[in-house]
Specification:
Elements lengths: L16 E4 L8 E7 L3 H9 L7 E7 L2 E12 L2 E7 L2 H14 L5 H10 L11 H12 L2 H13 L4 H22 L3 E6 L6 H9 L17 E9 L2 E9 L9 H13 L5 E7 L9 H11 L3 H6 L2 E6 L18 E3 L8 H12 L1 H4 L7 H12 L3 H13 L6
Helix pairs in contact: 2-3, 5-14, 6-13, 13-14
Bound molecules: guanosine-5'-triphosphate and magnesium ion.
């Protein structure tokens, strides 16, 4: 966080400052900075909550939706807002912020500063946000529509266009979910496998009680964790679960059954096995799969991507590594030494297919409505008309 604010920040009664970091003019992206005391309150009023992670929000004013804005928290009182670079969008967003800052006059000053830059070199610091938007631009929806038109001209069918549109809506919804920190990861496995210890290590502070008594965790506990691999970082909701075993304890059984029911809502399942308790640690995947079959979970694992995690690998000879299986990845990890935790996060991001999602246009709600019309189109002429409309429209950066 850069505090105190730079001298050229524009002041206002709440003491938060607003400025536009990108140069004046039409551009793919405009980035503005909201910082200083009270910036978090302004952000809460703008976005509904104070985002802790890079978050995509639909920002509204009285007259309707202004834009889908990428909010990048850079400190408790410091945010970047990435929006479409159209002049009107920028002006509307500044006006909205000024209203929330209780200083309508700031609009004129911020826009005037922007039009007559003394210093404005592009200062966008959030590489990932820029990359995401830039790729969205490069693979924009208008371009997508033109590709579909070419495909139709070459004799392709509208059924294929509809299928592509459906896929685009699903992939984009997935990316919005990721950006909103709504990806759900569950830790399941036998009692005492080390699920809670792994969750606590990942989180950096205790989320669940751990002990060598099997059945320690009774409830399903959920916390937000960061999943990091290289440049990529997302927020996700990690759920620690009660270890699955035969039990006469009514409460424990209810906790287990309730939890199994929610596995279908997960986006990644981590099947945790104590590596010292299995007969062949190198074939962890196969052992984990056998355990899942024994507990009737094969349907759940067929529906949700899963990773076999062998815990307590600090207790094994360091030279051994797990054999990978075509059924899915296997990772050894330790909540004692932290070994394997980075590899585990890389695998999570890989099975979520985020890099692949980033290669396609990110669409906002208005655009997804248009695509839904296309998907529901009853005639080829209707599909072509919607494609014409999308390909010729000024779709901004997306
Ligand atoms: N050496 C070593 N011990 C571990 C590791 N992870 C967990 N343990 C120990 O294994 C025991 C069980 O750990 P928990 O995290 O409570 O296991 P759990 O899977 O949550 O167990 P339940 O809640 O009963 O299902 C505890 O005594 C931990 O200290 C590890 O990576 N290395
Ligand atoms: Mg536990």
């Amino acid at each position: 966080m850069s505090w105190p604010p730079k001298a050229d920040h524009t002041a206002n009664p709440s003491n938060a400052s607003l400025r536009i970091l990108t140069p004046h003019g039409m551009a793919a992206i405009a980035v503005m900075e909201l910082s200083g005391p009270g910036a978090d309150h302004v952000m809460a009023a703008l976005a509904g909550t104070i985002p802790q992670m890079v978050t995509l929000r639909s920002i509204k004013a009285d007259e309707g939706v202004i834009d889908e804005v990428l909010i990048v928290p850079r400190g408790s009182d410091h945010f970047e807002l990435h929006c479409h670079g159209g002049l009107l969008v920028v002006e509307k967003l500044v006006r909205r912020l000024a209203h929330l800052m209780n200083d309508e006059a700031i609009t004129g000053r911020v826009l005037e500063d922007w039009r007559h830059p003394r210093r404005h070199l592009p200062e966008v610091e959030t590489l990932w946000g820029v990359q995401m938007l830039a790729r969205a631009h490069a693979h924009g929806l208008a371009k997508w529509a033109r590709e579909q038109q070419r495909m139709l001209d070459a004799g392709g069918g509208c059924v294929e266009v509809k299928r592509q549109a459906q896929w685009l809506c699903t992939a984009s919804a997935g990316l919005h979910r990721v950006m909103d920190g709504q990806t759900r990861i569950a830790l399941i496995g036998p009692p005492n496998a080390g699920k809670s210890s792994l969750a606590n290590f990942w989180l950096g502070h205790p989320m669940s009680v751990t002990s060598d008594v099997p059945g320690t965790t009774r409830d399903w506990v959920e916390q937000t964790v960061r999943v990091i691999s290289g440049d990529l970082e997302i927020a996700a909701r990690l759920t620690d679960t009660a270890g699955l075993r035969q039990t006469t304890d009514q409460l424990e059984r209810l906790a287990m059954e309730g939890g199994i029911g929610t596995l279908a809502e997960m986006h990644v399942i981590l099947l945790v096995m104590d590596i010292t308790q299995i007969s062949d640690p190198q074939h962890l995947q196969a052992e984990a799969w056998q355990w899942a079959i024994h507990h009737g979970l094969e349907d759940k694992l067929a529906a949700v991507p899963w990773i076999a995690v062998g815990t307590k690998c600090d207790l094994l000879a360091p030279s051994t590594v797990p054999v990978q299986s075509p059924r899915g990845p296997a990772v050894w990890a330790s909540a004692q030494s932290g070994l394997g935790m980075a590899a585990l996060q890389t695998q999570v991001l890989r099975v979520l297919a985020i890099p692949q999602m980033l290669c396609h246009p990110v669409i906002d709600t208005t655009q997804s409505e248009r695509l839904n019309h296309l998907i529901l189109g009853t005639s080829d002429a209707e599909v072509r008309a919607i494609l014409d409309e999308i390909s010729s429209a000024d779709m901004g950066i997306f």
